Amino acid sequence: MNEEEKLELLKDLLLKDEHEYATSLEAKIKVLEETINKKEELSEKVNPIIKDELENFTKEIPSTLGPTITEALKTEIKNSQDAVVEALFPIIGKMIKKYIQQEMRILSEKINKQVSNTFSFKSIKRKFKAKATGVSEADLVLQEEFKPTLEQFLVIEQGSGIVKANHSFSQNIDEDSIAGMLTAIKSFAEDAFEKQQQELQHIEYETFHIHLQNFSKYYIAVIISGSYNVIFKDDLENKLLDFAQNKINKTDLNNTNSLTKQIEAYFKHENL
Amino acid sequence: MKISKKIVVLGHFGVGKSSLVRQFVENTFTEDYKVTIGVHILKKVVQLDNNDVNLILWDLEGQDDINNIRTSYLLGTHAFIYVYDMTRPSTFENLKQEVDFIKENYSSIPFNIVGNKSDLTTKGLMNEHNKLHKELSLTFTSAKTGENVETLFRSIAKSIT
Q1: For B2-160, which CATH class?
Q2: pLDDT in tens, B102-151
Q3: What is the pLDDT of residue B132?
Q4: N or C: which end of chain B has fewer CB within 10 A?
Q5: For A162, which of B1, B72, B76 is closest by C-beta distance?
Q6: Which of residues 112-131 of B touch A (CB under 8 A)?
Q7: CA–CA gap between residue B33 and residue B36 (Å, rounded)
Q8: Chain A to chain B, count of Cβ pairs less than 8 Å apart?
Q9: How many CB atoms lie within 10 A of CB B66?
Q10: Residue B49 region, left (φ>0) first, then alpha (ψ -120 to 50), else beta?
Q11: What are phi and psi of A221, to 5 degrees?
Q12: Is this model's pTM higher than 0.95 or not?
């Protein structure tokens, strides 16, 4: 055994444990290297940790970041209202379109139901009416569905716009403000066109129609919902003329309560 | 019995007509200036001697020349309030002529002249205004602080009912 071999033997004897430890470390590092370099293996180890962290983060967002985000959104919306409106407009438009489609579907179903109910007395009556007048049955069904309804009746002093009498058939509105605005709109329109003897007769607001009928000291405004057609308008005009001629006198105009009672009594019996 | 009275508020642009009306009706004031287009109508019910009086306030858009006012808005008025801005001489340098125009055309209707924005002036300036327009009865108000606003409308309501 030469010197070199002896030294090797001595090294083996003295450093055996360290050598084994170094070999095991080397193996571990190799496994780690493989785990890091191979995406699938790394994912397998890291994904559950990230998943848990993300779950915790999602749970904590409402309580930690919620108020800050809400506040930031509020400020942003307040500062850029035009942009918000611009962004929402197409969505709202679609919603309205959907709503109208839905309403049309309901109406169509109602008409189908009415038409299919062929043997009811109402239907037979309608069929006769259609034959006699030449108006189609479908149009008559539509007319029945959108029958005009009187909502509010106002007697308003010309010029001042002060309400002389007011009767609500269904809903309550602020009659004084409405009468004032109607008078202002009427004055403006009649002034702007600079035509003598011509008067504003009708205003449309959303689903409401406002019928205006002029008399010398006052005018009558009737708020109507539903279909406001020529036949109804003609009928209403006649009724208002009759009411003005036979029921309103000078004394009534100065007595709001008495005039309101006259309206209630008159339109209770009149079929419009 | 319900009593309704129409009060028309007029004057130059930006003198505080709408602010004055809003202060009276809603007890609010804002520094934001929004121009009135056409007319704005507000209502307030005041109680006078156990009677409810509906004050229908027609706040007209500002006009630098009273001759340009849409006269159909003035029909059936029970009282006028002419507002000027105490801090802007251009709004009161023709005060006499403008008041005369209204008085000539609507002689029987009570007329009130109001110097607004009193919070931005001094007592001395108010005295000066009173001296300058001796023949007119002026009221000084502040739509911002509410000074004299309620008193003005209530005294008008009293004079026309």
Answers
A1: alpha beta
A2: 889 998 999 999 999 999 999 899 988 888 887 788 999 999 999 999 99
A3: 82
A4: N
A5: B76
A6: none
A7: 9
A8: 57
A9: 18
A10: left
A11: -115, 125
A12: no
